[in-house]
Amino acid sequence: MEISISEAKAHLGRYVSQASKGKRFVICDRNRPVAELRGLETTEPLPKRLTLGLLKGRFAVPDHFNEPMNGFERDYYGDNP
User: Fold this and answer.
1) Fewer Cβ atoms within 10 Å of its own Cβ: the N or the C terminal residue of the chain?
2) What is the pTM of this model?
3) Has residue 29 been placed in a domain?
């Protein structure tokens, strides 16, 4: 199915959903085909959502994390900020 760029912008979510189910779209600019939208052919399962606290106990923020980085700031801004 051919669609214009403005149509693709306006309804991108709908077209992506249909493409993931096997439908193919040709996106046209001034009636000239320029791109194709189609679903990916993959057998990989979608990644699981990350949960909060995934690294609890495995990572700690160092005590000096919020301290000023004087050397960096001097190199970045120069001697006179």
Assistant:
1) C
2) 0.52
3) yes
Domain count, the chain: 1
- Which pLDDT tens digit goes with each residue over 38-70? 998 876 777 778 788 878 888 888 998 998 887
Say if 28 falls within a structural domain: yes
Q: Is residue 24 assigned to a domain?
A: yes
CA 54 to centroid of chain Cα atoms: 21
Asked if 25 and 8 count as a contact pair (C-beta separation under 8 A), the reply is yes
Q: Which residue has the tokens 């801004």?
A: 77
Alpha carbons 79 and 31: distance in angstroms, whole number = 57
